[in-house]
Design brief:
mainly alpha
Length: about 90
Amino acid sequence: MKYINANKVLPEKLIVEIQKYVQGETLYIPKTKTAYLKWGTSSGGRRILDRRNDAIKNSFISGSSIQQLAEEYYLSTETIKKIVYSQKK
């Protein structure tokens, strides 16, 4: 984690106010909730898993068994069940 000196980025009045609560300590200021991305959003990992899960669901609907899908996708039968029985798209 990279640290930034508060004197370089915050107004003096704000630093004085913060010093009423914390002095000489490392202070973490979290991102706003809207600034967080869900897992895999920026890397594309989420999209890849969504496509895989859609393919698994479609194969299940077309008649493939849970066991066949587990072997084909190298996943446990419990994981396949979670995918095919989930209510999400």
